[in-house]
Amino acid sequence: MAITIAPITVDLPHTFDTRWNRIPGITVTGRTLTIDPASYYFRVESTTWTVIDWEKVAAALLPVNETPTESIEQIALNFIAEHGRTTTDPAEVLRIAWQVYGFLFREEHLPSLGLKGVTADHLRMLAEVSTLTALNKVEPDGTISNVGPAWFFVDAAKVVYDLDRETAGMLDEVFHGGWFNENRRIEGIKAHAALGGRLVHACQSVPDSRGGVVAPYGTPMDRIRDELAGFRDEWMSRVQSFAVS
Fold it and tell me: Source organism's superkingdom (predicted)?
């Protein structure tokens, strides 16, 4: 059932690209990001998110290594169980998400990405669009409760940053590299604990712009897949329609 969320205003330590104003419901003014949920969301059925303060994750989880008897996923799950809390403040979600993705897409990774042409500016784009994906939400039973344009992050990036197909595909490959590169995968598991779960990519065998979401551990993947199949094409087309001709 659709619900109402009050307008969201958050001051971030980073100035988002003003072309985010092309997305209905988003206004960028300096370092202030304002979102009108009624205009921004395609579906909004939840007003709660699970978060952990980034400072706690950075200090107490990032330095931890898995052991022969405890995987990094189990360590992250236990950390969320111990430190996770519920917030009803989407601005807080965005502040924490910026810290998460500013960390995951930092310039230090450029030499090891294995892709020619990726720049610090491309990493900034990924950090911005990923921050907004944190407002999406999947429930523990697999129901997709909140969906905004940033769910389809490749198409949103094309619209906002005027990217051609090749460059947008390169960004998608950098994003997928968080699974292929084991160091980045482990880093991502730890960092996403701050957003209450693990990053689940909706693509199946190849990148096909299905996006992704931070889902609680234990969420049934089949339910997410089936739900996504019901709206992907329609809502992805709406994102594409925001492009400036």
Answer: Bacteria
Residue 149 in contact with residue 156, Cβ under 8 Å? yes
- Structure token digits, residue 129: 């669009």
Pair 210, 129: CB distance under 8 Å = no
Joined together, the tokens standing for residue 46 give: 């939840």
Is the predicted pLDDT of residue 50 greater than 80, yes or no? yes
Which amino acid is it at 226? D
Helices 72-83 and 182-192 cross at an angle (nearest 10°) of 10
Q: Determine the 3-state secondary structure of 133 from DSSP.
A: helix
DSSP H or E stretch at residue 132? helix 120-133
pLDDT for 178 beyond 80: no
Query: DSSP letter at 87?
Result: E
Helix (H, G, I), strand (E, B) or coil at 34: strand
**Torsional sign, CA 19, 23, 24, 28:** negative
Domain positions in the chain: 50-240
Residues 6 or more apart from 44 whose CB is under 8 A from it? 2, 3, 5, 37, 145, 146, 147
- Which tokens in the block code for residue 204? 């199946």
**45: closest CA among 135, 151, 149, 133?**
135
- Please give the Cα distance from 61 to 58 (Å, whole number): 6
Which among 197, 55, 223 has a CA at the least distance from the CA of 134? 197
- State the burial class of residue 235 (Cβ atoms within 10 Å of its Cβ: 0-12, 13-18, 19+): buried
What is the pTM (predicted TM-score) of this model?
Answer: 0.94
